[in-house]
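Lecture notes, unit on protein representations.

Consider one protein chain, 404 amino acids long.
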Amino acid sequence: MNHNFDLTQASGVPTQPIPGLRVSVLVPTFNRANYITECIDSLLAQTMAALEVIVIDDGSEDRTAELLRNYGDRIRYVRKENGGKPTAVNLGLTLAQGELIWIFDDDDVALPQAIANRVMALQAMPSAGFVYTPHFYGRDGQDGKIIKGRLHPLSIHRQDTFLYELMKGCFFHLATALVRAEAYRAVGGFDTELLSSEDYDMQLRLAQAFPAAYSPAPSFIFRQHTGLRGAKIIRHSENQRSRVFRKFDHRIGQKLRARLNLGDYLSPRQTVISTSTAQRQALLARMIVMASKGCMPEMMEDLRALLALLPPDEVPADCQLEAITEAICTGHAALAITDQWEHFQELISELPRSRAGRTVRRSVATGLFRLSRGYPGSIQLRCLRLAQACRVAINGLFAKPSGL
């Protein structure tokens, strides 16, 4: 049964910061007077105390500042002009004195042993740059206090596949991560041009540079609510959230393509790709990542490069064709295809008019057929995707071979 969350402290764990593993908690906030006190109370109720809780007020226009003054010297309050969460967090990173950093959202609630559990995980794995955990979902009760709901479980990935799986989709929340301060210094600050998905961008950069530790104990409750969110310039409601995420995830896909080498998409990563087989695998892997971010021109560019590596009469292997179908059904690909259908048809028409090219078209059509059958959406949208699948399939069936 769901119940209001109890901040009662647990016993049997250290209550004071551990030398060398002291935690600085950074809480960027903007107009969260209705939630900020429950958030801060949960951070101050940790069974292992943080070295400091730094609240960076990104120009709030409500009662946030007034409420936070009541905490006195139990927190450090810093106010700045509104510039978005990345600018607030970057300021907090310059102020933090702890060896470990916990960036926590102002509308969520921490579980009492969040710091203690994750510190122990990092103690057990000194090579890890950060530790991550599952979390609970939550909602507002009648009194406005959070009610703990279902657990968000995580799939556990090996170190050699962790980065690639994270590139395909964000499977853990940055608020669950306790990160070594030296890791943040090594990868640089948050991208201030990303007014959304900035956490995901940081997770990818950390995973590229450092191994990850995992702690199975959930660390916080993620509040689901209908209030406004985001920086002042992109303030949006809950029903607009997916559109905003998609816009900025597209930018992340382009950043990945510019920043990573092709071999970084392999598991394990390879500095130098020495065989054509490995090159094909890397192109397929990057193709899926690009599709997941709605970067369809980049996806098709990788498809064309893959086909160029095949002998004239050879078609992709079944596993490669399945990867192409998977890409169409991954992340933001479906909506990107629907929104840019005419452009996507042009990209399909640019594939070689060879046996391999026709086979690839049919794999794309298979992906669209799958979407029409099982992807969330209205009947009208599913019918549209079915029509799109037919168009691509017909294109593949009747495309004239090259040279004819």
